[in-house]
From TrEMBL:
It is an enzyme of class 4 (lyase). Its EC number is 4.3.2.2. Pfam families: ADSL_C (PF10397), Lyase_1 (PF00206). The lineage of its organism: Eukaryota, Metazoa, Chordata, Craniata, Vertebrata. Residues 376-460 form the Adenylosuccinate lyase C-terminal domain. This is Adenylosuccinate lyase. One of its GO terms (cellular component) is cytosol. It comes from the Eukaryota. GO terms for biological process: 'de novo' AMP biosynthetic process. Belongs to the lyase 1 family. Adenylosuccinate lyase subfamily. Homotetramer. Residues from neighboring subunits contribute catalytic and substrate-binding residues to each active site. CDD domains: Adenylsuccinate_lyase_2. NCBIfam families: purB.
């Protein structure tokens, strides 16, 4: 805040992702304090490794850098950047100001991307580490929901038209399966992240080879040492000035895919045509300034809204990577400052919100039952025909009888707005008297759901529970949303 004036927060634009939606821990990861503190940590790791490999760097210089990792004068850094028009050099000078003895060896042999790109990779890795347990918790909550409602019949829909019955639990497994794929993809991309490492201006390590007087082994050891200090198992062998921006495409692609999954899940709840399931709505929530009876699925709608934003962000790294000419062009910088942070803050927000929704889903069995009754008579016609044939009737005669009665019942529903009375018409027709006593059994919804409940049980036991098991220690964490 300029001059510590709190009015500054009201007089300037702030991203709603940071000010309204995303978690404090994710916002901190992409904060200036974390970014520039990580720059200093990288400078320290470089100096420690260079000292170990024989460069004339003293313990006193190392200790001075260690003691000032958090002593960041942001005002001075801003003034230096305004003067130098270079953020890295501004912070080199700022760090050197509070480390006068070490000032001469800070950033020794490095280029700006040593701190810039390596910091980005550290933050991306740590951001994935925040998202993964959150996604696992969402999957776990929905798995509980699926297990609880594994046997509850509901209308299936194909082409958005009523189709063969399924169960509420089976439908939620469709959502869970997509989210499980997302969990696997996020894990893969996180684990595939490689450190840029210590590569120099155009990726040739020429400056470090000069520092170590042509000793290639020491340059390679330096790269490995800093990579290990940063907690990475591997570094790129080949880079230009930057790590390849294809990495950013991979990162935002899996986040965009997550956005698609979340949008699909929450759109189903918002639509509420399928299970008549509501997302949680606090008693005090006012859903309309004009219609006090309304209960809007506001958090589900928020998920859909932000998921669209998340899906669209992948276009930024796609276009950036396509125009990174030769060893590097700087047209990536401003774009990446925005899209990388926004992607993770958005993913964080929708997962927090989705967990909250999943913990409070409400199903209305009586409403589901009423909707099944409206459609089931038509779905049961084939079973009725088969029962009549078994009782000695003609399949063709029965089919024609059912066709006529079905058209009459459909006219009542469509033209008069009445209930589906096909079963009453069948009961009143003497032709069907051989199976009148079987009609109740033939219309049992559970006989129309196939192996849905068995599929739910097998899916949860064989695929879902093993996938989320590594996150068992954080499964009880609850999400409290202020909005």
């Amino acid at each position: 805040m300029a001059g510590g004036d709190s009015r500054y927060l009201l007089d300037t634009y702030r991203s709603p992702l940071a000010s309204r939606y995303a978690s404090p821990e994710m916002c901190f990861l992409f904060s200036d304090r974390n970014k520039f503190r990580t720059w200093r940590q990288l400078w320290l790791w470089l100096a420690e490794a260079e000292q170990t490999l024989g460069l004339p760097i003293t313990d006193e210089q190392i200790q001075e850098m260690k003691s000032n990792l958090d002593n960041i004068d942001f005002k001075m850094a801003a003034e230096e950047e305004k003067k130098l028009r270079h953020d890295v050099m501004a912070h080199v000078h700022t760090f050197g100001h509070c480390c006068p003895k070490a000032a001469g060896i800070i950033h020794l042999g490095a280029t700006s991307c040593y701190v810039g790109d390596n910091t980005d990779l550290i933050i991306l890795r740590n951001a994935f580490d925040l998202l993964l347990p959150k996604l696992a918790r969402v999957i776990s909550r929905l798995a509980d929901f699926a297990k609880e409602h594994a046997n509850l019949p509901t209308l299936g829909f194909t082409h958005f038209q009523p189709a063969q019955l399924t169960t509420v639990g089976k439908r939620s497994c469709l959502w869970i399966q997509d989210l499980c794929i997302d969990l696997q993809n996020l894990t893969r991309v996180r684990d595939d992240l490689r450190f840029r490492g210590v590569k120099g201006t155009t990726g040739t390590q020429a400056s470090f080879l000069q520092l170590f007087e042509g000793d290639h082994d020491k340059v390679e050891k330096l790269d490995r040492m800093v990579t290990e200090k940063a907690g990475f198992k591997r570094a790129f062998i080949i880079t230009g000035q930057t790590y390849t921006r294809k990495v950013d495409i991979e990162v935002l692609s899996v986040l965009a895919s997550l956005g698609a999954s979340v949008h699909k899940v929450r759109a189903a709840v918002v639509g509420a045509l399928v299970t008549r399931a509501d997302s949680p709505s606090p008693v005090s929530q006012s859903c309309s300034s004009a219609m006090p009876y309304k209960r809007n699925p506001m958090r589900s709608e928020r998920c859909c809204s932000l998921a669209r934003h998340l899906m669209g962000l992948v276009m930024d790294p796609l276009q950036t990577a396509s125009v990174q000419w030769f060893e590097r062009t700087l047209d990536d910088s401003a774009n990446r400052r925005i899209c990388l942070a926004e992607a993770f803050l958005t993913a964080d927000t929708i997962l927090n919100t989705l967990q909250n929704i999943s913990e409070g889903l409400v199903v209305y069995p009586k409403v589901i039952e009423r909707r099944i009754r409206q459609e089931l008579p038509f779905m049961a016609t084939e079973n009725i025909i088969m029962a009549m044939v078994k009782a000695g009737g003609s399949r063709q005669d029965c089919h024609e009888k059912i066709r006529v009665l079905s058209q009459q019942a459909a006219a009542v529903v469509k033209q008069e707005g009445g209930d589906n009375d096909l079963i009453e018409r069948i009961q009143a027709d003497a032709y069907f008297s051989p199976i009148h006593s079987q009609l109740e059994h033939l219309l049992d919804p559970s006989s129309f759901t196939g192996r849905a409940s068995q599929q739910v049980q097998r899916f949860l036991e064989e695929e879902v529970y093993p996938l989320v098991k590594p996150y068992a220690g954080v499964m009880e964490v609850k999400v409290e949303l202020s909005l």
